[in-house]
From TrEMBL:
Name the record gives this protein: Phosphoribosylglycinamide formyltransferase
GO CC, one annotated term: cytosol
Gene this chain is encoded by: purN
Similarity section: Belongs to the GART family.
Residues forming the catalytic site: H112
Length: 199
């Protein structure tokens, strides 16, 4: 059996998708978490990662101002120490430059709370409701220089209910995120890029 792929998870907030990923990487899983990295030293997800025994690091983006290249160079330094094979963006709220995405081409995943290519960017649930969509969901995709535009590796769908608000829809989609992202990572780490489709 080959050694498990080393996975670094990038977060900005509470880290619920990070926890779902980390808790899935046990037993015969083809990957293992080696680092949780945040752009916010106060992110609650860092405490959650520590609690389950994953090394953590933070690179505060704020001192870098608009110098995204310098911020990303600092990120790369932390990643170099952990030597990951795969990066998983899990609520990482910084837009990455083409230089960074090219360095990790074919090795970086992201989860987005819409059925891409619909509603790239922010406020996805409100936009789905405003459009009168019958269903919403989430997508895991490879990260490229195009925002939320890389090859799709998995999707999960939920119905939009008549009394939904953006918050209630987001909560139901999040349940699916926690199922979809681990399923895609398991397949991806094993070298299989066939999309995962959950009902």
């Amino acid at each position: 059996m080959t050694d498990p792929k080393r996975v670094a998870i990038l977060i900005s907030g509470s880290g619920s998708n990070m926890v779902a990923l980390a808790e899935s990487m046990t037993g015969d899983h083809p990957a293992r978490p080696v680092l949780v990295l945040s752009n916010d030293p106060g992110a609650k997800g860092l405490d959650r990662a520590r609690a389950i025994g994953i090394p953590v690091a933070a690179v505060d983006h704020r001192p870098f101002g608009k110098d995204r290249a310098a911020f990303e160079a600092a990120l790369m330094d932390r990643l170099a120490e952990a030597r990951p094979d795969i990066l998983c963006l899990a609520g990482f709220m910084r837009v990455l430059t083409p230089g960074f995405t090219e360095a990790w081409a074919g090795r970086m995943l992201n989860i987005h709370p819409s059925l891409l290519p619909n509603y790239r960017g922010l406020h996805t649930h409100a936009r789905a409701l405003e459009a009168g969509d019958a269903e919403a969901g989430c997508t895991v995709h490879e990260v490229t220089a195009e925002l939320d535009g890389g090859p799709i590796l998995g999707q999960a769908r939920v119905p939009v209910l008549p009394d939904d608000t953006a918050d209630t829809l987001a909560a139901r989609v999040l349940v699916q995120e926690h199922a979809l992202y681990p399923a895609v990572l398991r397949r991806f780490a094993a070298g299989d890029r066939t999309p995962v489709l959950l009902p």
